[in-house]
Amino acid sequence: MRIPVRHVAGNVIWTKHGTCWAVWRVEGSGHAQSSRSVKERRLRALESLVKQLHGESMLLSLCPQVDPASVVRKMTDGVDLAACERYAQLATRVWDQLERMELTSRADWLAVPLPAGSKRQMAGMAFDAARAEIDLQLGLLPVPVGAREEERRLEQALAAAWPSTVALRPATEAEILWIYGHCARRGVLEPLLPEPDQGAGRGRGRGAAALGQVILAESAAPAAEAGQEEDAHRKSRFARRWLQVSTEWGESYQTFLSLAEMPERFVFPGSEYLASQLCEADGRS
Hints:
The structure is a single chain. The chain is an alpha+beta fold. It folds into two domains: 5-65 and 104-255, no CATH class; 66-103, no CATH class. 36% of the residues lie in helices and 16% in strands. The chain is built from eight helices and nine strands. The protein has helices at residues 36-51, 68-76, 85-99, 119-137, 147-159, 173-184, 229-235, 272-284, and strands at 5-9, 12-15, 20-26, 58-62, 107-113, 168-170, 215-219, 242-247, 250-254. Helix 2 (68-76) packs antiparallel against helix 3 (85-99). The longest helix is centred in the middle third of the chain and has 19 residues, at 119-137. It starts with a strand and ends with a helix.
């Protein structure tokens, strides 16, 4: 499986299906250590944002891994370690402890499909996407998206307006490619989220970097009656319990759960509910 991206420029994605999406990074992501009032204020702001979305717009909340070295670097930034030997030793001990922990943060993203414009432009985008796919099948390099098309789509993305209560900034190309790499490598060697100032240069050419091949395998379907197991597996595509994702970095087992209502013993923000589920899963394994 290849990533469904044909081209990336700025915060705009050209997909293999002939559509374009704009991606923004939601600033000020909530943290577990934030106060209840801060979390509630952020919840109301995100609710206001979600109510204004339409169509296939998505609000993604992802948990990137945190490099322990970056944490220690922030601790020691601006500190003269030569004059503070005890603090240098403390930073070393903290680094050793963090290396044995799984550190994650939270980053929110807003993805919005851009209008295709006229019917002629819509047909042209579908034709370009199909031609690029055929070129790849033939082992040829697809024709890159033109500069004029890039400028038109970037202007569309800049014209989008959102509530002032939510601070947004255009996602970088490196961050967009990180989203796809993160989804395929959950639970294994995940890529680190790049800093916003990385890869800020403007380039021309084919902007869809190759992230490697991804092999997907659905399994663990509910048991069927004797003689009907094979037919049930073909029909119940949405009854699969987990997904095996194989990449060059290892195999990742992922599942998707839909939470309709928070249990009564957990109150907002309810993040401890996920921790309790992880403890139960570890106990069963």
